[in-house]
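User: I'm putting together a small comparison set for a docking exercise, and I want a reference complex before I start. The sequence is below, and the ligand is S-adenosylmethionine. Could you produce the 3D structure with the ligand included, as structure tokens?
Assistant: Of course. I'll restate your input first, then give the structure tokens for the complex.
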Amino acid sequence: MKTIKPTEPIQTRGNLDKVVIENDVLHLAGWVASVDAGPVEGFKIVCAGKELTEFVMALGLDSPDVEEMFPNLDCSEKARFHINVFLNEQQQEQVRNSLIVLTPLFEGRKGCLLLDLLEPSLPLPDSDLRGFIGANVNFTDAAIEFLGYFLQKGGLKPTENVLDIGCGAGRMAYALAYYLAPTARYEGFDIAQPLIEWARQNITARFPNFNFRQVDIYNKLYNPDGTLQATEFAFPYEDETFDFALLTSVFTHLPSEEVRHYLDEIERVLKPGGRCLCTVLLHNEESQKLMEAGKSTANLVYQIDDYFATSPDVPERFIGFQEDLLMKWICDRGFTLQGKYYGDWCRRTEFTSHQDILVFQKDCSFVSRMRMFPKKIYRMFQSRNMNEKA
Ligand SMILES: C[S@@+](CC[C@H](N)C(=O)[O-])C[C@H]1O[C@@H](n2cnc3c(N)ncnc32)[C@H](O)[C@@H]1O
């Protein structure tokens, strides 16, 4: 099996602020700037899976706001762009309710994708449901931001099978639904019944290859009446089913024993060569200093066993791990780390997203899989004992 190594884009920042069809023209406006690769030279535009080639663009427009926010980016004072794509009626029908992907090009190299949904027909969960997962204001923004990471940092292809662990109301599924092919399988599970109910009624109803399931696992914050323990829960999927697993803001609410067990299960259900992208809060020298200076948005000051929490009474509110220790748990299971991207949760100045992001891959070499064999046998006996006890 071939190892998928996503081609890392060059470091850029940007945003697609306007995506609208007016008078047979698709208007795309926003800004983009690179860390050290000069100004943007052009774009590749893909909409509803098809490349659009008939467009005119204006680059290098004034952007005092971008310059103020990101003075260190190359040409941040001239980072705005405007693109007009001419569409006939048939094309307009095709691009409505679809995903738009802009690849900025710098000296022929790709920058980070700029994505948006044009007139999506999927409804949003109400503010109570969004509030429950802490996404009242940024539901679609986060969905689109992470789709970019899945594609460029995780190498996700439209035909691959995806597992969304702790999927909530399907925030990630919201954007994935516009990217994955109808033949790709998406499975999401979560412990909060109302979220899963919403996702089933609204996402599965429109995208039947998207399945959601509730499991009644205890979590003091999200499901205090849950009857199952996360550490004893076998993911309800066959071995080697998925190409890609994701956990957005889930390991940030699980104690370490549960994280280690979930890593075991991820290793089991991923195909050889499969990747996992998860967000975490990494406790390291830099984040510790920022926390001590009172700058961090999450103060992981309570050490409980081998993890850190912001609250001693409800540790599940926010949990972080010593970076080296978490890396060891990941490597112990035979995964190879592919990417580590620090976030601004502790208010560092150079960052990718809000939380820290890790991407790791299940090894596909025969030798390393044989190395994992004794651990697998041990785990099999463990789960058999648990089933016998139950
Ligand atoms: C901050 S929310 C993130 C939800 C979703 N991943 C997203 O990005 O919108 C954390 C989610 O983790 C879920 N969760 C907590 N403990 C879990 C567990 N042991 N297994 C699966 N999901 C869990 C919660 O119910 C909640 O939906």
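The first helix runs from residue 64 to 69. Residues 127-389 form a domain with the Rossmann fold fold (CATH 3.40.50.150).
User: Thanks, that's exactly what I needed.
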